[in-house]
Amino acid sequence: MDDFLNRITRPEVQEFIVSNENTDVQALLLSRREILGLPPSWIATQIQGRRKAKEKLPLWYRTPGIVYPPSISLEQCSSELTAKYKQQLVHGHHAADLTGGFGVDAFFVSQSFPQLEYIEPELSLLELVRHNHLRLGADHISYHGQTAEDFLKNSKGAFDLIYVDPSRRQGSRKVYRLGDCTPDVVALKTELLRKGLHLMIKASPLLDLKQVQRELGVIDQFIVLSVENEVKEIIIHLKRHPDRHQPTIHAVELSKTGEPTPLAFTWEQEKTAKSTYSPPQAFLYEPHAAILKSGAFKLVGERFELDKLGPDTHLYTSEEQKPEFPGRIFRVIEHVTLHSRLHEQFENGYANILTRNHPLSVEEILRKTGLREGGQQYLICTRAEKPIALLADRIR
User: Fold this and answer.
1) What tens digit of pLDDT does each residue of 246-287 get?
2) Given 184, 279, 349, 388, which residue has the most CB atoms within 10 angstroms?
């Protein structure tokens, strides 16, 4: 690994990688000619890594001399945006990241702890991450080339935080239940909380929160993280000494340009919340994806004084705009009927199709109306007392 790092970080090699970032990687591989004395596959991996990091990990992208692993490690790591958010949740003296991977979460968590242990059994990846962390200015991280289970068994230390991002792959198969992932945090829970005051688990966005509680017992909080209206991960926070019996659920929408948009609640609050119902009024609201995943269907309407379109339709409405609403806001222009000439009512025949609890799919609506997807206006197909369609403008 040292030989690889020494050769790939030579100034002339790094200059070639940066200046050829937009080159045709397949053509480069097919040429089969060495580049500056290196196999073209090495160069291709670095170019592909930089492309991926440009949006996902801008700090890595901007930092000279960063080295990238094969694509799967980049695909599985946290984004810089979500890792920075997690950094704000934790602080203390000593932390351990039991599933180091590409080291993104470890780097940002280490900004809140003077001492952090990075654990990764794949030694070549560990050395690559050590190199990158030093390039990024993190020189207070200790590295351990072993499994999470072995580290826990051999460690004599106590930690303010143990962080785990269990692998959701078994060979070529993806798994999602915590007990099927590696390491198995369900089986290790007692030992994890014996060694750590706080346990933070990054989990699949597909998990059912109440099933997780049945598996793990008393949970302090769930954090459902969405980015640009797509749920990216669920963070599960447990304490060695819990101070509550039911978790607080935080539904958080992260934006690349603005402040996080959170909504916090308990299952008891959602259970006792009351919904009121109304046909579409002047404004229509769609909660961001983290709220929909977390299940705050009645409570979001109650908190923002909105009527719901229907018991099973998670769209909300009001006569006056509620600009503080955590999600998308639309202005209703008119009710429309789905027919073959509907495209004539939209500018150049284009519309963004939004379907919520409507019997027709987007494809069926496009065929029926002659519309094409795109443009500035929206066609919202949903259900109040019966299926309806609305021409609307998005105002946020």
Assistant:
1) 999 999 999 888 788 899 999 999 999 999 999 999 999 999
2) 388
